Amino acid sequence: MKIAIIAPGLPTRGGAGRYTWELSEHFVSKNDHVSIISLYTNRDIYKEKNNLRIIDVADKYSLTQSIKFWINLCKTKKKISRLVNEISPDVVIYMNFPATLWADKFDKVPVLSYPQDINLLYTNTYIKNLSLPKYLLWIIIRIFVRKLDKKRWKEFDEVICNSKYSEKHIISKYDVKSNVIHLGTRTDFFKPTTRKKNVILTFAAQKAQRSHFLLKAIADLIKQRNDFEVWVVGSRGSYDHELKNLVNVLEISNKVKFFGVVSDEKLVDLYSQALITIHLVRQPPFGMIVTESMSCETPVIACHPGGTDETIIHEKTGYLIGENDQENLLKYVQIFLNNPNYSYEMGKEGRKRVEQYFKAETQNEKFRELILDWINKKSKN
After folding, report:
1. What is the pTM of this model?
2. Architecture of the domain defined by 2-184+359-380
3. What is the pLDDT of residues 247-259, one digit of tens each?
4. CATH code, residues 199-357
5. Residues of CATH 3.40.50.2000 domain(s) within the chain?
6. What are the contacts of 122-131 at 24+ separation with CB within 8 A?
C-alpha cells in the first residue's frame, strides 16, 4: 500500500509531528510505502528509511506561525497536489490542522483527514497568550480561515478524531460525523525506569501549556515546605525567558529546574522520576503528555473539559480540575507530597489504562484498517 501523508511540518521531537512520524513507522512496519509531504522537517530528528520518504516543500521560515505560510497558501496547495499526483498513492491523509487548508480531491483515491485540534480556530486556547495586537489580528484572520477550512473539508471522504471531545466540536462546527481513534502511546518505550523523587513535572514547549500558572500557584507552597522541586521540560525561546524571569521574581529559582528540549529517552526518565505530571492546557483535545506520563506510571493532574476526561479516571489515575482552579490544583499536589505512595498506586492503575485503551500498536492498526476499508470501497466504486 502506498500512503501519502500531508503534515504542516515536523520541526521538533514532540507533539503532532512525532505522532505523524510514529504512525508512519507503523505503516512501514506492515510493508507499506509512506511519503510524508510537509513544509519543513528537522532531518536531525526525523531520518528517512526504507519505504519512508520525506518531501519538504518549503523551509523552517515558512511554518504555520509565519506570514510566509499564509502568503504562500494557494501556491503550497498546488505544489502538494502536484506531488501527490506524481506519487500516485492508494490513499491520501491530511494530518493536523492547518494541513486541512491544502485539501484536494484525487481521482478514485480516498482522502482522509486527522485534524487533531481545531482549537486554534474555535477557542482562544492558543491565542489568548498573544500580545494584544497579534491577538486582535488573529481574531480577524480566523473569521476568513474558518470559511476556507470548511470549504476544504468537503474534499474529505472521512474525518478521524483523536477523542470524543474533539468529535463533538467537529459535529457542532462542521456538521460532519467522524470516526474516533485515540492517539496511541508506545507502552514498550514509555515505561517506568527508576524510583520516584519529590518532583512535580510540567511542560512548557508553548505558552498554552501554562507552566506560568503552575509556578504562580505553587510559589507560596514552595516557601512553606522545602521537600520538593518543580521540573520544567521543553521550554525554549521567549517563553523560556519569561518563565525564568518569573521564578526569579517569585524567589523560587532554587526549587525550579529547567531542562529545555530533551530526548525521548531523557523524557521517559523524567516522567518516571516525577510524583505527578501537571498538564494545564485549556480544553485539551487529547494530550499525549497525559498518556505518556500514565504509561510511565506517573499520575496526572489536568484540566477539563477535554480529551482528558477520556484518558484520566478522576481519583484513580490522576485528578481533573477546572482550568483556573488553583485551590484544587494545590490540594491535589499536596496529597502526593504528603503521601508519595499515592503516586505509585495511581501510577500502576494509569499504566493499566493506557495498555488497555491507548496502546500505540492497537490504535495505529485501527487507523490502518480504516484506510484499507476505504481503498476497498473506492476500488469497488
Report:
1. 0.91
2. 3-Layer(aba) Sandwich (3.40)
3. 999 999 999 999 9
4. 3.40.50.2000
5. 2-184+359-380, 199-357
6. 122/146, 122/169, 122/173, 123/282, 123/283, 124/282, 125/208, 125/281, 125/282, 125/283, 126/206, 126/208, 128/282, 129/207, 129/208
